[in-house]
Amino acid sequence: MVHRPARLVDLVCAMRAAGLEPRRARFVQSRAKSSPVMVLVEAVKNVKPDLTILPTLNIYGDDGQYTEEMMRIYTE
User: Fold this and answer.
1) Helix (H, G, I), strand (E, B), or coil: what is residue 5?
2) Which long-range contacts (CB under 8 A, 24 or more apart) does 63-67 make?
3) With 5 labelled, which of 26, 36, 42, 73 sits at a CA distance of 20 to 30 A?
4) What CATH number has the domain bearing residue 54?
């Protein structure tokens, strides 16, 4: 699921109400020093709580170009 970071608590509550447990979450931000613009959440149905927060994904580097990770995402 892709959602706004400010609504993360609402998202987790809705997932749990539907029998889904968040497993992995990753914040996405435009640049390293900016606030996250979205959060990616992967959930699994009917499992025990065990959330892993992954490293933040930065879209652009200091030079204004896509980061290496973003380039890998686009080319794979």
Assistant:
1) helix
2) none
3) 73
4) 3.40.50.150
What is the chain's mean pLDDT, rounded? Answer: 96
For residue 74, the tally of other CB atoms under 10 A from its CB is 8
Instruction: Quote the pLDDT of residue 54.
Output: 98
Which structural domain, as residue segments, surrounds residue 64?
Answer: 2-75
Q: Name beta bridge partners: 41.
A: 25
Q: How many Cβ atoms are within 10 Å of 23's Cβ, its own excluded?
A: 14
Domain count, the chain: 1
| H/E element, 2 | strand 2-3
pTM over 0.85: yes
CA distances from 58 to 6, 7, 14, 41, 67 (A): 18, 20, 27, 16, 7
Give, as one character, the DSSP assignment of residue 63: T
Q: Tokens at residue 73, please?
A: 């995402």
